[in-house]
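A reminder from the course coordinator: this example appears on the midterm review sheet, so study it carefully.

Given structure:
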């Protein structure tokens, strides 16, 4: 019978330690990366909503600027795409609102339905414009990290109009 020296026994211990520790380290690493991607998605979506609201505020007089709700929506979408963000099923809403982001109709009455909200170009001085971006974040490895396959992301920016 051959007796292994200490150096040979230690090499086998390294392999066993690696086999035990490697999955835990990889799970932790991928978890950190996925969480960072999610935080980046939230940050870029917030920035896109804020920049689109600023874009809309500067163009409330649609007769002079030729801008419409579709151009504000395209601006927000282009901002997110330029940052490399892809939200599935994303939609951008632009409307006249109160200071809490609740949609208002042309008479200034709070609406429960976004389709009856007044357009952003109906705002006057000291009225509010809201840009709301809604989408779905999809993790790269949802089953690996025991995550849900889709996480709802919402960003809202409310700004006071100083024009018109």
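Designed residues:
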């Amino acid at each position: 019978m051959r007796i292994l020296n200490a150096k040979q026994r230690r090499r086998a211990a390294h392999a066993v330690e690696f086999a035990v520790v490697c999955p835990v380290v990889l799970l932790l690493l991928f978890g950190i990366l996925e969480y960072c991607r999610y935080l980046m998605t939230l940050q870029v979506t917030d920035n896109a909503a804020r920049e689109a609201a600023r874009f809309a505020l500067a163009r409330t007089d649609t007769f002079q600027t030729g801008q419409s709700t579709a151009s504000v929506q395209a601006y927000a979408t282009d901002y997110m795409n330029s940052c490399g963000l892809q939200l599935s099923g994303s939609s951008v809403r632009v409307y006249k609102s109160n200071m809490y982001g609740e949609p208002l109709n042309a008479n200034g009455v709070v609406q429960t339905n976004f389709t009856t909200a007044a357009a952003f170009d109906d705002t006057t001085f000291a009225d509010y414009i809201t840009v709301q971006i809604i989408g779905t974040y999809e993790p790269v490895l949802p089953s690996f990290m025991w995550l849900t396959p889709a996480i709802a992301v919402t960003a809202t920016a409310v700004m006071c109009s100083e024009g018109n």
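Residues 41 and 85 are 7 Å apart (CA to CA). The chain has a mean pLDDT of 84.
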